[in-house]
Design brief:
By secondary structure, this protein is an alpha/beta fold. It has 15 helices and 10 strands. The protein has 2 domains: 249 residues, 3-Layer(aba) Sandwich (Rossmann fold), CATH 3.40.50.1100; 94 residues, 3-Layer(aba) Sandwich (Rossmann fold), CATH 3.40.50. It has a 6-stranded mixed beta sheet, sandwiched between helices. Strand 4, helix 4 and strand 5 form a beta-alpha-beta unit. It is globular. Bound molecules: ligand F0G. This is Threonine synthase. One of its GO terms (biological process) is L-serine catabolic process.
């Protein structure tokens, strides 16, 4: 049965919005949970306590396929013919793959200028998606695609789409399944548009309500320092879910400050280079449900962590390594204990962004720090070094 071959639709009872015959799947979600003492030692864990959930093994090379299969299935139920997204590269690669595989919809992709890795862009182009580059960054592209899709009635597959998050819940179901339904102490995940963290919170809330788990793991969401809206609002300014009434004035004030300073997100982890996460409020709910913490890590910490993941035989793109860097930081701060059972999510494959990897391993230290330190350095400039 095709549904059994999908790591998402094996759990279709927990995503009850489509009939089995309507499901669109390309065999996503067959991803391993890997116990690794090598990376565990780097973080400071006791042996046998650190696991990496390797979502880069999805058909398009990132966790996005978990959500895309659900969005496509929903789009089919309503008969949509075109689908759009703004993307830092992975959502667009996933959308383009599902479009050309299923032949159900035509893909329209909005990307910001300059800040998309060639690995990701080449996927969208090869899969035949209409790809529009706009002047501006991801936040500008997101704004534009929301306007365009509303005006033209195009189906939007960014994680503002709640069906995407239903699919992404299954990442946690597979983690629990791999651990024989023994709940880990921590889930550590990079934070960009905050879709994953929101979906994970919803998954745990539902599983707990259904009585399938007896406790809820703690959630750690890790921002890159150059794109740290959640960290600033949650840790810095005390923004909380507050039983469904988060203080909107804290958010408005922060965004007004960003506008005034013309603050643009800037990090080597281009996948999470986002200043205005669309799932901010849902993520607050997840943090509330999972006794969450938020941390920020530097580009240097991200790339150091990434090289450790690679050196232990896995490999991931920079944004994914934020989870490992964040776990190390939380361990150093004593928030995570060495004996805790910790699961870090590796969201995207190593081959997504080889430029960052090669630069890290070849530049001499002074040069590397100079490049990292000069804010606003474009991908092309970086590639030319
Ligand atoms: N890791 C990778 C590899 C990503 O591509 C993204 C998001 C994230 C982490 C952040 O996840 O949004 O659930 O907090 N990439 C989006 C994109 C924005 O357009 O591909 P999140």
């Amino acid at each position: 049965e095709p549904l059994c071959r999908s790591g998402v639709w094996r759990f279709h009872e927990l995503l009850p919005f489509a009939k089995p015959e309507q499901i669109v799947t390309i065999g996503e979600g067959q991803t391993p949970l890997i116990e690794t003492d090598g990376v565990g030692k780097y973080i400071g864990m006791d042996p046998g306590r650190l696991y990496l959930e390797y979502e880069g093994m999805n058909p398009s090379g990132s966790f996005k396929d978990n959500g895309m299969t659900a969005a496509f299935t929903h789009a089919r139920t309503i008969g949509a013919t075109k689908a759009a997204c703004a993307s830092t590269g992975n959502t667009s690669a996933s959308l383009a793959l599902y479009c050309c595989s299923s032949k159900l919809m035509q893909a329209v992709i909005f990307i910001g200028s300059g800040k998309i890795s060639y690995g990701k862009l080449s996927q969208a182009l090869d899969y035949g998606a209409l790809t529009v580059q706009i002047s501006g960054d991801f936040d500008d592209a997101m704004h534009r695609v929301r306007q365009v899709s509303e005006k033209l009635g195009i189906y939007l597959v960014n994680s503002v789409n709640p069906f995407r998050l239903e699919g992404q819940k299954t990442i946690m179901l597979r983690v629990l399944e791999s651990l024989n339904w023994e709940v880990p102490d921590w889930i550590v995940v990079p934070g960009g548009n905050l879709g994953n963290s929101s979906a994970f919170g919803k998954a745990f809330h539902e599983l707990h309500t259904l009585g399938l788990i007896d406790r809820i793991p703690r959630l750690a969401v890790i921002n890159a320092q150059g794109a740290n809206t959640l960290h600033e609002l949650y840790q810095g300014r005390g923004l909380r879910w507050n039983e469904g009434s988060p203080d909107q004035s804290i958010i408005d004030k922060y965004y007004a400050e960003l506008d005034a300073a013309q603050g643009k997100a800037d990090t080597i982890a281009s996948a999470i280079e986002i200043n205005r996460p669309v799932n901010l409020i849902k993520c607050l709910r997840a943090l509330d449900c999972c006794d969450g913490v938020v941390r920020e890590v530097t580009d240097q910490q991200i790339l150091d962590a990434k090289s450790q993941v690679g050196a232990n035989g896995m490999g991931c793109e920079p944004a994914s390594a934020a989870s490992v860097a964040g776990a190390k930081l939380l361990r150093e701060q004593g928030v995570i204990a060495p004996s805790d059972r910790v699961v870090c999510i590796l969201t995207g494959h190593q081959l997504k962004d080889p430029t960052a990897t090669v630069a890290y391993h070849t530049a001499d230290q002074d040069e590397f720090e100079r490049v990292l330190g000069s804010r606003g350095v474009s991908r092309a400039q970086f590639a030319n070094r």
